Structure formats: structure tokens, C-alpha cells
Amino acid sequence: MRTLRYGVSLAAVVMGAAMLAAPVLHAQQAAPADSAPPSNDLYPATLDFGTGLVTIPVAWIAPGSGAIWGQVSGIQIEHNLATQPGLSFSNRWNTNLAFDTHWAGRFSVGLSVYSQNPEWGLFGQALLLKEQQGHAWPAIAVGFRNLGPYSHEDRYLVGHDIRIDSAGGTHAETSSIYRGFHSGPTMYAVATKSFAVGATSDASVSLGWGSGIFYENGGLGRNYNDKGTIVRGLFLGGRYALHPTPDTRIDFLAENNGWDWNAGVVGNWRGISLGIYGLELEEGGKSPSKGSLYTVYNYTKLSVSLGYSASLPSIRTNVGLRSRLAQLQRERAQLNSELIERQKRVASLEDQLRGERAGELAEVAKRRQDLEAQIQSERDAIAKAEARLKALKEGTPNPPPAKPPTPPSPR
User: Fold this and answer.
1) Within 13 Å, how many C-alpha atoms sit on residue 382's CB side?
2) CA 371 to centroid of chain Cα atoms
3) The pLDDT of residue 28
4) Percent of residues, the chain, with pLDDT higher than 70
5) Separation CA 33–CA 40 (nearest Å)
6) Most buried pick, 193, 241, 326, 342, via CB within 10 A?
7) Which candidate, 153, 246, 137, places its Cα nearest to that of 192?
8) What is the spatial distance between Cα 296 and Cα 160, in angstroms, rounded to a whole number?
9) HSE of 229 in the Cβ direction (CA atoms, 13 Å)?
10) Where along the chain do its domains lie?
11) C-alpha to C-alpha distance for 51 and 219, rounded to whole angstroms
12) Statement: residue 345 has pLDDT above 90
């Protein structure tokens, strides 16, 4: 029985919330000019293992070091409904959580957590030959998948299960159906040729061969795969990418993963991606006529994904820029506050200066009036003395009183 474990569910929810809430810091690093392929665009993450198409890998590693991908995906597999028709919505989906990192423009390594039990496996790739501008040869890479203790995985990674006993305890087990699978690790080689299509789009085609997940059917024959295989182990596919805006990319994907024909579309905005896929498109509807495992295989399935990609150097650079920006914003706020206080101080000083000038003017006017009064008093005294002196000269002891002078006109 496959159940939705709380820890895996919580991890998926937290990851999805973080990708949607956190500021997105997505930047593609430029490759050296002498090794740049016609299209150096980022690839989306596959449903289960690192970058590629829908499920198959491509011969491509992000230039530079520190590119990262994180993705949660789900495939609708209703294989328990026949015996447990009341299963909840969450238990009808087989979920996967994967983290992929690329280094030195040459190799990648990542971890995938399968289903809800969960199982896990490492994956990685080495780019042996890079595409070069003006040359016809493709990029070539070798890689591995499902390196870990769960060696009986099928192509949907449901080969291992848990059993719940009567006491409610859980026990790991491998169903007898999947003991014929030996997919750990799965090895592969792949070649990819990319090319530009106009100024705002590009495309690529890939061809490869792999063991394990790409090749083994566990002895189940038609029950595992009714139709869709070209040659066992052979996988191929293509991608067409559009750039409606500088921050937006839309990838159209189609492939044959050795068993089935799959297709999907992935939209990416500043590193946040959302994908919708159709799997086993050649099979159509579910029918008991397609074998005893018809509830797991041989019918068209829906899959969705939510992912996030970024560059660690870009994140580090942006964190530094954000720190500097925050510092500058704090400094700006302090300067604004200081400016307001100084403006208030200047206004206060100007008011004080105007008051002192008004007081000085009033004091000067009063002093002037006092001086004018003293001057007038002296003039009156002089006029009185001159009149007396004239009377004495003329022999008039008591001259008529002098006419009072006209007061000075106000100025």
C-alpha cells in the first residue's frame, strides 16, 4: 500500500510555498565564446531525475558552477483503486521530489525522493563532448540514475512499497511483481544537438540508450508495456523553446522514453516553472484487456510539476546587493530625518532673527526720538538765549516772548 507520508507531503508543500513566496533570483551564466553552442538556454527539470525533457535526459550541463533545480512532480496512478476504491485524492498521485546541481560546466549530481513511502536514489551526468559554434557534432554525455538501495524500481519508481500490519506499524517490502527488475543503478549515454530558430526561440533533438529503467520490464512483458517501444533501451525526444519576454520561457517537449510516447509544456518565469504533461499517449484509456496490471500501466496518464531553478553565484550576488540596498535605504532614512530636523532648526533660527531685527528697529526708533527731542530742546534754549542777547543789545530789558518754534515734521 502506498500512502502519503506526512514528512514528504510537508516537504513538498514547504518547497512549493518557498518557490512562490521567495524572491526569485534566476540568472543564466554565459558560457565561454569558444564553446557556446547555438542555443545555450536552460533546460527544465524532468519529472524524476534532473534536467532534460519529460522523463529522458539530454546531453547538456549548465555553464559555470552552481546552477540548481528543485522540483515537485506528481503522476496520477490509481493502481490501488481496484482493492481500495475509497482512497483519498492525495493517494491517487505518486509524487516525486528532486534536487539537481550543475558544476564546472561538465557534470551534475542530484538526489531524487521517489513516491510517498519514500524511496530515494542519486543521479548524475558527465558531459564528455560539448557543442561548439559552427561545428556539426552534437554534445555527448553519460550518466546514471537510481544509485541507491532501491534496486527494483520500474519506470514509474513504484517498485518498492510499505506494508501496514494489524498494529498500525509500517514495513518496507518489495512486491513479487517487481523483484524481476534490476534498475539500480541505471546507466545511459545520450547525444543532443541544439540549434537556434529565429531570434527568440531555439530547439534541440536528443537520442540515447540506457539500461535499467530504460530497458528492463521485469519479465512482465505486455503487462508492463503494451505498445510504444521502438527498440528496448532506446530513447529519443525533442524540445522547442519560446521566449515571449526576457524573463519568460515556454518549453514544448516530446519524447519516447524507451516505453511510451510522452509530451508536455513547461512555462518558466524568472526561475519558477509549472509543467503539465501527458504520459503513455499511445495507449488511450484504461482497460482490463491491456493486461493484469492495467491499473498501473498501459493507459494515458496526467502529470504536473512545480519547480524552481537558480544560480548560486547569482543568489550570492543578489544577497550582497540586497544587503547593500538595505544599508543605503537605512542611510537614506537617517539623512531624511536629519534633513527634516535641520530644516526645523533653520526655520526656528529665522524666526528668532526676525524677532531680534524687529526689536532692534523699535529700539533704534525710540533712541532717535530721544535724540531729536534733545536736539529740539537745545535749539529752543539757543533761540531763547539769542532773543535775550538781542534784547540786551537794544536796551529792552523785557522783550516779548519768542514765538514757539514749529515742531519738526515726523519722518
Assistant:
1) 7
2) 85
3) 39
4) 79
5) 11
6) 241
7) 137
8) 14
9) 18
10) 6-309
11) 30
12) no
How many residues make up the chain in this entry?
A: 411
- Let me know: does 273 contact 45? Beta carbons within 8 Å: yes
Residue 256 pairs in a beta bridge with 236, 261
Q: At 346, give phi and psi (nearest 5°).
A: -60, -45
* Least confident span in 74-88, 158-172, 260-274, 386-400: 74-88
- Residue 241's contacts (CB-CB under 8 Å, 6 or more residues apart) are 39, 41, 201, 202, 203, 249, 250, 251, 252
Encode pLDDT of 365-408 as tens digits: 888 888 888 888 888 888 888 787 777 777 766 656 555 556 65
Across the range 149-176, mean pLDDT stands at: 82
d(CA 29, CA 51): 16
Say how many C-beta atoms besides its own lie within 10 A of residue 101's C-beta: 19
Residue 212 scores a pLDDT above 90: yes
Written as one letter, the residue type at 35 is S
In sequence order, what DSSP letters do the residues of 120-183 get, joined into one string? EEEEEEEEEE---TT--PPEEEEEEEEESS-----TTS-SEEEEE-TTS-EEEEE-GGGTT---
d(CA 112, CA 95): 11
Q: 362 phi and psi, to 5 degrees? A: -65, -40
- What are the residue ranges of helices labelled H in 22-92? none
CATH class of the region 6-309: mainly beta
Cross-strand bridge partners of residue 356:
none
Q: What is the pLDDT of residue 198?
A: 81
- Phi (first) and psi of residue 288, to 5 degrees: -60, -15
Burial of 53 (0-12, 13-18, 19+ CB in 10 A): buried
pLDDT, one tens digit per residue, over 285-303 is: 988 888 889 889 999 999 9
